[in-house]
Design goal:
The protein is α+β, with helices and mostly antiparallel strands and 310 residues long. The protein has 13 helices and 10 strands. It is elongated and about 85 Å long.
Length: 310
């Protein structure tokens, strides 16, 4: 019995199994839809699909940098429990995914899942891990940096937070361990201080306008209770001064450097470059924190026990 691409799509939607596995099942079942579902269940893939409905908000952020080509990748792979996140097999899988990102340079997560990983696709390897580990696992996101920058990774608390830093450096500083150390310090800064922007020039006008509006209201309220109220032009200058404080708190390059808070990150980078006799510029950074933005399931143990007793 022949089958169409629509049949493959329908089987995928019903079982939540990968497209290639659905196609193979339909081929093996000679187009029989129910038989294809049975085949997927027998192979354990449909069981894996059921796990996909469970929330995976734990996991790990992994960074890999290629010693040969200089490209780098940061990936977040999620699991349901912190226990699995500490599993060596799970951590190796995350590392292997990052290496595939470096090698294949996929456009997005769906393209990544179709890339080869050993004898399987990444999607196939992921489903295997779901079956062997017994939890819903998800490849959530990734970023890849090419060799146009000197790439340095920093991970915090075993992969709870990861920061990939890309530095533009002059040729005479490439391979310098001090530059690598600087990259790690910048990564640590971003991990600890959670900047919203890299530089103050990156703050969009809408955000800036909203912040000015909030600061103006605050200044006017303060002025109402001041012993000697200030004129409007002075209040506006106060607001602009406080905008500078906003930059210092929310922009990575303008933040006080965590290891020496008397200088900004920007000035620290310049000082290191001057000392080494070259140029260094922070070109980009990516900060991932595992599970950020994912609504975790809140288990009510008492309610669970009560329901079991009924």
């Amino acid at each position: 019995m022949a089958f169409t691409a629509k049949d493959v799509k329908a089987l995928r939607e019903q079982t939540n199994v990968g497209m290639m596995d659905c196609k193979k099942a339909l081929q093996e079942a000679d187009g029989d839809f129910d038989k294809a579902i049975e085949i997927l269940r027998e192979k354990g893939l449909a069981k894996a699909a059921k796990k996909a409905s469970r929330i995976a908000a734990e996991g790990i952020v992994c960074i890999e940098i290629c010693d040969e080509c200089g490209a780098a990748a940061i990936v977040e792979v999620n699991s349901e429990t912190d226990f699995v996140a500490k599993n060596a097999d799970f951590q190796k899988f995350a590392s292997d995914v990052a290496k595939v990102v470096i090698k294949e340079n996929p456009a997005d997560v769906e393209a990544l899942k179709n890339c080869k990983m050993g004898d399987l696709t990444v999607e196939g390897a992921l489903q295997e891990k779901v079956l062997t580990i017994g939890e819903n696992l998800q490849i959530r996101r990734f970023e890849r940096y090419d060799d146009s920058t000197v790439n340095v990774g920093y991970t915090h608390m075993g992969g709870v937070i990861g920061v990939l830093v890309g530095l533009e450096v002059s040729d005479n500083l490439k391979g310098n361990p001090v530059v690598t150390e600087l990259g790690k310090d910048i990564g640590m800064q971003a991990a600890a201080m959670r900047p919203l922007f890299m530089d103050k020039s990156d703050v969009d006008q809408a955000t800036l306008d909203k912040e000015k509006e909030i600061l103006l209201v605050q200044a006017l309220e303060e002025n109402k209770t001041a012993a000697k109220p200030k004129p409007q032009q002075i209040i506006e200058k106060m607001v602009m001064g406080r905008i500078g404080k906003y930059y210092e708190e929310n922009c990575l390059l303008q933040q006080a450097f965590v290891k020496e808070n008397k200088v900004s990150v920007e000035k620290h980078i310049a000082a290191v470059a001057k000392e080494l006799g070259g140029s260094i510029k922070l070109a980009k950074y990516t900060r991932f924190e595992k599970g950020e933005g994912i609504e975790k399931k809140q288990d009510d143990f008492a309610a669970e026990v009560a329901s079991m007793a009924k």
